[in-house]
Amino acid sequence: MKKRVLRYLKHILGTIIIFMAIGASILIYENGSIHYGDNPKKMDWDNEGPYVFYKNDSTLNINYIKGSKKEGFYVDEKEVSTKQSALARSFFALDSTSFSFNLDSDFQIPESTYTDNQKIIAVSDIESGYRTFRDFLINNKVIDQDLNWTFGKGHLVLVGDFVDRGFSTTQVLWFIYKLEQEAKKHKGNVHFIIGNHELKNMYGDYGAASLKYTFVTSILGKTQANLYDKNSFLGKWLSSKNAIESINGNLFAHGGLHPDISKIDMTLDEINSFLRANYYNAPYPKANKAKTELLLSSKTGVSWYRGYFREDDLSQKQVDSSLDKFDAKSIVVGHTLQNKVKRVFEGKVIGIDVQHPKDYHKNWPKKTSEGLLIENEKYYRVLSDGSISEI
Question: Membrane-spanning regions, if any (predicted)?
Answer without folding.
Answer: 12-29
